[in-house]
């Protein structure tokens, strides 16, 4: 990895007001709180209103970042929004965020790596800043998955929620955050987690064209619990670090049973994991920034902590970062 010259300097988040609890879902599909909690660890999730979209909650997460950190956003020179649920095919969510925040002279684009999106976005921001192309990048991971969830399918509707998290990545040669990175994808398994658009085929296989999220949970689980521990081992080896050096593990909050299995296979104590799924559900690219912001708010995540960030999911893509936390 090229020597980083960038630091994560601030973070903020936002979730919609409406709650969808396990008891609520019991009235919609054949399920119950005990079944959902025991298999996923999720108790409730947040749902956007009809007139709330991904750009809406992105702006609110950025505004919260500005409020809690005191950082100005008017001099941001690049906006990256990580999402699989854009308001439109074009204009990008990032362009809508740029307009809403009144930022002039900033590039703006969307990045879709699904559940690995936010870590990919941070990785790209680090590269942009470290190369000298940009000085201050706003990275937002946000989803309105409720708008593409089939609430008659109990395999998926119990999982997904809406939310957004924003981070600021700024030039800092003397105190960089980014220590090591890993990116990978296994596109041959893309049909295990998808949401169709223009094509109804993935890898030559016909898939359901109704536009809802479809997941083969068993296959995604098998892939994650095998692949993520291997990725963690490689990332730490590249950084010359050990499991014991990690203060916090911030994985994609897909499923608590999956996270526990990954922890068991790697030796990372479950007590060192940062998750957001219990009260927000699986928010895809938003799970990691929501986890980081919650841990910052309650005082667990502190300046100087070593954090292992690991996004994995649709693609099947993965992206991991070892970062020194500098966002106070």
Q: Assign the structural class, choosing from mainly alpha, mainly beta, alpha/beta, alpha+beta, or little secondary structure.
A: alpha+beta
- Sheet with the most strands? 5 strands, mixed
List the strand order in the largest sheet. Answer: 1-7-6-4-5
Radius of gyration of CA atoms, rounded to a whole number: 18 Å
Provide keyphrases for this structure.
single chain, 15 strands, five-stranded mixed beta sheet, 328 residues, alpha+beta, 10 helices, four-stranded mixed beta sheet
Describe this structure in words.
It is a single chain. With 328 residues, the protein is an alpha+beta fold. It contains ten helices and 15 strands. Helices cover 32% and strands 25% of the residues. The strands form five sheets. A five-stranded mixed sheet has the order 1-7-6-4-5, sandwiched between helices. A four-stranded mixed sheet has the order 8-15-14-13, sandwiched between helices. Strand 14 (306-313) and strand 15 form a beta hairpin. Helix 3 crosses helix 4 and helix 7 (217-239) runs parallel beside helix 8.
Summarize the structure.
The protein is of the alpha+beta class.
List the helices and strands and how they pair.
Elements (H helix, E strand, L loop, with lengths): L5 E9 L3 E4 H5 L6 H8 L3 E4 L6 H16 L8 E5 L10 H9 L5 E5 L5 H14 L5 E9 L9 H4 L4 E10 L6 E8 L7 E2 L6 E2 L2 E2 L7 E2 L1 H23 L8 E4 L4 H11 L10 H4 L6 H11 L8 E8 L3 E8 L4
Parallel strand pairs: 4-5, 4-6, 13-14
Antiparallel strand pairs: 1-7, 2-3, 6-7, 8-15, 9-12, 10-11, 14-15
Helix pairs in contact: 3-4, 7-8
């Amino acid at each position: 990895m090229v020597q980083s010259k960038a630091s994560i300097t601030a973070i903020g988040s936002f979730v919609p007001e409406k709650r969808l609890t396990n008891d609520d879902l019991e009235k919609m599909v054949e399920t119950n709180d005990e079944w959902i909690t025991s298999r996923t660890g999720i108790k409730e999730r947040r749902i956007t209103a009809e007139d709330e979209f991904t750009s809406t909650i992105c702006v609110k997460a950025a505004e919260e970042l500005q409020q809690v950190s005191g950082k100005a956003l008017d001099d941001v020179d690049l906006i990256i929004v990580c999402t699989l649920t854009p308001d439109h095919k074009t204009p990008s969510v990032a362009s809508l965020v740029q307009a809403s925040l009144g930022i002039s002279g900033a590039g703006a684009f969307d990045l879709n790596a699904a559940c690995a999106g936010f870590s990919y976005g941070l990785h790209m921001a680090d590269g942009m800043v470290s190369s000298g192309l940009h000085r201050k990048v706003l990275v937002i991971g946000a989803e309105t998955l409720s708008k593409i969830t089939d609430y008659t399918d109990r395999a998926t509707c119990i999982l997904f929620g809406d939310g957004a998290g924003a981070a600021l990545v700024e030039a800092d040669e003397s105190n960089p955050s980014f220590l090591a990175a890993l990116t990978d994808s296994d596109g041959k398994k893309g049909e295990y987690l998808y949401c169709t658009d223009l094509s109804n085929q993935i890898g030559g296989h016909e898939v359901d064209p109704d536009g809802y999220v479809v997941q083969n949970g068993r296959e995604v689980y098998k892939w994650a619990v095998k692949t993520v521990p291997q990725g963690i081992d490689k990332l730490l080896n590249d950084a010359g670090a050990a499991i014991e050096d990690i203060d916090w593990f911030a994985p994609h909050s897909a499923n608590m049973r999956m996270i526990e299995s990954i922890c068991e296979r790697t030796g990372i104590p479950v007590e060192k994991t940062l998750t957001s799924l219990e009260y927000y559900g699986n928010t895809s690219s938003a799970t990691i920034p929501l986890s980081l912001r919650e841990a910052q708010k309650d005082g667990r995540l502190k300046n100087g902590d070593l954090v292992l960030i690991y996004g994995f999911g649709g693609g099947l893509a993965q992206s991991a970062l070892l970062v020194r936390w500098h966002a106070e």
